[in-house]
Amino acid sequence: MATWRDVERIAPSLEGARPGVAHEGSPTFDVGRHPFARLRWDDDGREILQFWSLELDSALALADRPHVFCRIDTFKVKVSIWAWLDQLDVEELTELLTDSWRARRGVRS
Question: For the segment 36-57, what is each residue's pLDDT rounded down to a tens digit?
């Protein structure tokens, strides 16, 4: 089970990553001028990781895990995905953070 503390441990290892704060005050990790990880909470106080993906067809890949992921379409070339942190293990969290970091730093390869 992952927590935001795991994000705080993993994210700084990514080149150019730095802690930040979202417009309403929630913690983020940013690369360049964009967040690639953002902490949110559900109505019960559970931690939610907001991250980004270049995979526009991610809805199909995530469809079998609706208890973990929620996709938010906000961009033409990127999607925002929310994941309940307590449903991720640290290995999967590391992969998600790395992919999000790649998507938000503007490198598509």
Answer: 999 999 999 999 999 988 765 5
CB 67 within 8 A of CB 59: no
The model carries a pTM of 0.82
Q: Are 7 and 90 in contact (CB under 8 A)?
A: no
Q: Is the domain defined by 4-104 classed in CATH 3.30.200.20?
A: no
**By CB neighbour count within 10 A (0-12 exposed, 13-18 middle, 19+ buried), where does 72 fall?**
exposed
Long-range contacts formed by 2-6: CB under 8 A, 24+ apart = 2/49, 2/85, 2/86, 2/88, 2/89, 2/90, 2/92, 2/93, 3/47, 3/85, 3/86, 4/39, 4/47, 4/49, 4/85, 6/85, 6/90, 6/93
